[in-house]
Specification:
This protein is α/β, with parallel strands linked by helices. The protein folds into two domains: 36 residues; 207 residues, 3-Layer(aba) Sandwich (Rossmann fold). Helices cover 59% and strands 11% of the residues. The chain is globular, with a radius of gyration of 26 Å. The protein binds ligand Z5A.
Length: 251
């Protein structure tokens, strides 16, 4: 009697457990349907260096190559990249009323633009699996406001941390180029464009020497993340060096 009851109850247990397995498989399928995960995770790559070092040129080339491989790519720049950020960019660089801007104001405006960019554009792009190529990011603040304007580096870091949180680049390219060469390239480019005043470019030679020193310090401190690119090389050679670092990151 007991044995029969035991056999029945095992059968009942078996069919119950089968039902539970089927139902939990259904729950798992339902969870995946409700929360689709991107097949590939996003990647943030930043481009740094002095003005006219070729950053925008290389961002475009890399974006084109990645897109040709079927990757989702978002390109952006700092300061700017959003409607709010572009207004801040105008105030920082071109406004006719910006001559009295203080170094601390510059620091906060750069990071106000960045806080907006990170939340409005970069994080959503990374969440959908895009590769985000950003022409300048927080290393620019360390180099220009920290080393160039000589603001306290710990304060600069605190403000940057508020702006970016844990949205950090997986890879950064630092374009190293002699100041004279980048100035020559900018002069060539400007010859074809109408003149637009830029407050930051009005800084003296010593300022730009401190910025260059700042970039060298950043690259030396984080050699795994920051790859130095010889920006006096030609466009295709630079692209080939960049590709050598990017390709292994593509899964
Ligand atoms: N800034 C800051 O202070 N703090 C911050 O936190 C941030 C920024 C985010 C932004 O300027 C300014 O804001 C910048 C730092 C500060 N100030 N300065 N001075 P921007 O966005 O207007 O510009 P930029 O980033 O300084 O650089 P750019 O003018 O856009 O240049 P680029 O992107 O590095 O270079 P490019 O446009 O690709 O090339 C320049 C020219 O050279 C062009 O004619 C190309 O055809 C040519 N070129 C490019 N590559 C080569 C090679 N390999 N050989 C020969 N010719 C080349």
């Amino acid at each position: 009697m007991n044995l029969t009851l035991g056999a029945e109850s095992r059968e009942a247990q078996f069919s119950r457990s089968r039902f539970e397995v089927q139902s939990s498989r259904f729950k798992v399928r339902l969870l995946f349907a409700l929360n689709p995960k991107p097949l590939r995770s996003g990647l943030l790559i930043t481009f740094e260096g002095g003005e006219g070092s070729g950053k925008s040129t290389q961002v475009s080339l890399l974006a084109e190559r990645l897109r040709s491989l079927g990757r989702g790519v978002t390109t952006t720049r700092e300061p700017g990249g959003t409607l709010i950020g572009e207004e801040i960019r105008h105030t920082l660089k071109h406004s006719k009323d910006n001559a009295a801007m203080q170094a601390e104001t510059e620091l906060l405006l750069m990071n106000a633009s960045r806080a907006q960019l990170v939340r409005e554009l970069i994080r959503p792009a990374l969440a959908r699996g895009d590769i985000v190529l950003c022409d300048r990011y927080y290393d620019s603040t360390t180099a220009y406001q920290g080393y160039g304007r000589q603001l306290d580096l710990a304060m600069v870091k605190t403000i940057v941390d508020v702006a970016v949180g844990d949205t950090r680049p997986a890879l950064t390219f630092f374009f190293r180029v002699p100041h004279e060469l980048s100035q020559e390239r900018l002069r060539t480019r400007q010859a074809t464009l109408p003149f637009i005043r830029d407050r930051i470019e009005e800084a003296d030679r010593e300022f730009f020497a401190r910025v260059a020193h700042g970039y060298e310090a950043i690259a030396a401190a984080e050699p795994e993340r920051v790859k130095v690119i010889d920006a006096s090389a030609d466009v295709q050679q630079m692209h080939a060096s960049i590709w050598r670092s990017v390709e292994p990151l593509l899964k």
